[in-house]
Amino acid sequence: MCKHITLVLPNRPGEFHASTKILVAESVNILGFALHSEGRAGFLNLLCSPHDKAFSALSLVYKQFCVEREVLVVKADHHVGSLKAILALIEEAAINLPTSYMAMTKEGSSSLVLEIRNERDRTRTRDLLREAGHELLNSI
Predict the structure, then answer these.
(1) Measured between alpha carbons, how far is 25 from 22 in angstroms, rounded to an integer?
(2) CA neighbor of 25 nearest in space, from 17, 33, 35
(3) Is residue 63 classed as helix, strand or coil in its secondary structure?
(4) What CATH class is the domain 2-69?
(5) Domain map of the chain by residue range?
(6) Which of 25, 75, 103, 125 is the most buried (most CB within 10 A)?
(7) What is the pTM of this model?
């Protein structure tokens, strides 16, 4: 099972950098991230290794503005249409995908991070992807 971290940050210069300084001080590697803002808040999703060390360090600083969620991490093939094939499976099953981004594994291969908040839909997506021959990673 893989997890990522979501931070809610003030939407101002330097906030993303501040979080990376915390992780570097703890020798944590950022394998993937998605950053977006909405008004006064910024939302940062981080896929880190080691995850537990990252979550511990960030939750000390960001407290209730730091949460971890289970995600599916799918090994990404490097050819035209591979992303489309994954998204088609999710769409055909009518599963909502609120957050997704690209990441790397420790070995350097590309992965797709899928956050599906409903446990039933996450299990269905996991099963659909495996049945279609996609490799899901249990750890990064």
Answers:
(1) 5
(2) 17
(3) helix
(4) alpha beta
(5) 2-69, 70-137
(6) 103
(7) 0.90
